[in-house]
Amino acid sequence: MDFLQWNEKYALGIQEIDSQHQSLFLLINRLYRQMIRVSDPIEDNEILDELIKYTKVHFSFEENFFDKISFAESDKKLHKMEHLNFCAKIEEFQEKMLSGEEGLTTSMMIFLKDWLKNHILKTDMTYKIELDKISAPE
Ligand SMILES: [Fe+2]
Ligand SMILES: [Fe+2]
Fold first, then answer.
1. Cα–ligand 2 centroid distance for 120 (angstroms)
2. Which of 10, 32, 48, 110 is most buried, with most CB under 10 Å away?
3. What are the boundaries of each domain within the chain?
């Protein structure tokens, strides 16, 4: 069984965003598999780096997307703040890895997993709800 299992409850019903979220699940699972086998710091960083880059691609896609819909400015701001904080956190992991201070750890994997699950279910879902309101018939 995968470390992070995709399931329908994570689906926003917006195809491009759902498939980006699935790619993030895959990358976290790859990083987890990397952690449990004999780790190689260069390979560890390659996967982490891929995750960081793809996360940023996804975040900007999402921010562009919800900037276009009528969605409270304060919600957009909070949402972007969550994205920024997450990026800062994973970049901090990477710095620690590159300096040799820390390798891939279970607590880091659990952080990634919990953050992504909660963010999709609580924060990303809010713009899906706004979109549903717009497209719902009167
Ligand atoms: Fe988001
Ligand atoms: Fe997202």
1. 6
2. 48
3. 41-135
Please name which ligand lies nearest the alpha carbon of 11. Answer: 2
CATH superfamily of this structure's domain 41-135? Hemerythrin-like (1.20.120.50)
Number of Cβ within 10 Å of residue 110's Cβ equals 12
pLDDT digits 0-9 by tens, 113-122 = 999 999 999 9
CA of 100 to the centre of ligand 2 (A): 30
What distance lies between CA 10 and its chain's CA centroid?
A: 12
* pTM for this model (two decimals): 0.94
Inter-axis angle of helices 125-135 and 73-98, nearest 10: 150
Contact (CB, 8 A) for 3 and 113: yes
Distance 5 CA to ligand 2 centre (A): 16
